[in-house]
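Reopening: DUF4843 domain-containing protein still failing for me.
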Amino acid sequence: MKLRNITLLLLLAGLVITSCNKDETEPYTLKFIHIMDNESSEVTVNQNANAIGTYNIYLSSVQFFEPIKVAYTITAGNGLTEGVDYEVISSAREITFLPGIYDMPVRIRWLAHTIDETKNNTITINLVSADNPSYTIGLPGPGQKQRSLTITKVK
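Support: Ran it again with your exact input. Result attached.
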């Protein structure tokens, strides 16, 4: 019985020692800011909607200690009129990520109004810049995906 316990103890000690890895991988250190809704850069809203849409801007980074400001624009197509089809609730065109905050909302109130399907019935939220140049705007890579979010009002 003692021999079995000693063997088991030695086996467990061997497993613990071999599970330690001095060559641990580096943590993911890319820093970027992107916007999406349900993992997509394009979403729709019904023309009859009377609702507030919340579209989050996300910061992907290791822990940071200084606020990060991000500027964005909101551009409407020629088929939508502010005050008739929508209202932008987030009046500032800049958001600030405080330490420990990794997503910030842009809110748009959608108003029920019939659209003209022959016109451009989109609103695009486009991330423009960050005050810290070490942050990439959009997903890393040549395509800079999720640099903007397009919301289309549909019938």
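Residues 26-154 form a domain with the Immunoglobulin-like fold (CATH 2.60.40.2030). If you still see a failure, please send the error message rather than a screenshot.
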